[in-house]
Amino acid sequence: MLRLTFVLFLFSLLLTSHAGVLAQSRARQERTQTVRPAPPIPRLVSENGNHTLLVDGQPFLILGAQMWNSSGWPGILDKTWPQLRELNCNTLEVPIYWEQIEPQPGQYDFSILDKLILDARRENLRLVLLWFASFKNGQSQFVPAWVKENTQEYPRMLDGTGRPIQVLSTLSEKNRNADARAFAAVMAHIRRLDEPYRTVIMMQPENEPGSLGTDRDYSPAATKLFNDQVPASLVSALKKQPGTWAQVFGPEAAEAFSAYHMASYINYIAEAGKKEYPLPMYVNAWIRENRFGRAGEHPSGGPTSNMLDIYKAAGPGIDLLAVDIYHRNYMQFRALCEKYGRPDNALFIPETGRGIPFARFHFYAIGDYNAIGVAPYGIDPFHADPHDKRDKEKLDTKFAGIAANYRLLRPAIPLITSLQKAGKLKAAAEEDGLGDELLHFSQYDLLLTYGFPTYREGKEMTGRVLVGETGPDEFVLIGFDTKFQFRPRLGSGFSSAEFISVEEGTFENGTWKKIRNWNGDEVYHSTLTPEGVILKVKLRGLQSDKLDTKPNFER
Ligand code: DGJ
Fold first, then answer.
1. Phi and psi of 79, rounded to 5°?
2. 460 C-beta neighbours (distance < 10 Å), count
3. For labelling, which of 200, 235, 439, 479 has a CA lying 20 to 30 Å from the CA of 120?
């Protein structure tokens, strides 16, 4: 028995190293064969407070999916690609691990990263890589063993009782430099392998950083700094009066102190990476809005909504602060979009829940808050959550709504991003007890009525629509399960509107491909179907003595 186990062990070692060697030789081949000119590097641009992510020089919208925490390994990824195809996503967010990439100080193993990039490229997917390193969900579980085991060299934070916790100290240059050195090596490697392809479009250094369990580091060195003056650069960036942390930030002093040092720490790492390969970089937040909002109950020092200005001041190398939203209530979801989508911060939601509510919520993020991307968390079929009974369900029940969104939206990305840029896109969706919604545009009002064929209390809420105002009398509607009716705005001199044309179609390489004209019954009922549809609508205002009181559909 022992001998058999040993043989199996040797065999699995052989297989693993074989896969690594294969990936490395594929990577070497790709590098030497490559003479193609590199497309422009991905970057974020902002105009009039609206943000666009450019990939290959073109506006891009991340219709993404994120893997589970321990799934950035070939054994899991290989089983996940077919599921990603079904989801129609254009981007995969995958963790890459410091502990895996630098198993011994200064010795790097990029074989798994190479395979990931080459496989994603084969699948025609872009990658956002999540650097699980010093910080992951307010702890430091993903640092290499040689960091974990040597707390003298790589010190931890102390909590209020003076006990060390499993969170690296942000004040230690040793910690920061070790992480930055590894991250820089990763970025240099990605550049060597991927520059001509730009498979990797964005990096997330760290994950939901902060300290869980304490509002700040209580080590003597940290306490001394905490009782000192707030750095002048921060005070002036925030337009505050000088003073100690407690004087400047009052009850939020400990959290502000932690955020400043965390933002500076991650900024250093991001800058070190950008020196090698300047991809856009973002940091994601474990939000404070789901509990009492007390720092330490959520990781203290992360880019929570009350700390965004500190991150902007202390982290100029961080291109945006992203928000992970699992709230299943649309008002809370919208409130968070409102907080993170700012003129100085592009909205990106790298993690959301799955299922129908989030299929609607993605529309809000894209249509009303100009998100540069969204992604449900937990796409891979094999993961470690023992409570998740949905595990056994098929993709179509868990992710159906999101897969349908992506199928519909993906070809329309050039139009959607141009409407976002022009500030001409809106979203609306069915919510509990919300069966109708009136949207206002420059010349017309649009009444949306959810449900197919009619709105019913208690049924699954699938009605959702993006509405783009493409011209004074022209609209594009992209959505599901929604009836629509236009009226000229009050005071326009017109009392009703007639359809000049309603075209159903899609886009191929950014060009409109008409499938058919809608007329007769289709226009009479004016309903976006459950499968989802894109319509281009041309209208004309009508002057009439009497008011048009009859809707163009019956409920
Ligand atoms: C948020 C984290 O950022 C993810 O890595 C993952 O742990 C999810 N929570 C799990 O729900």
1. -85, -10
2. 12
3. 479
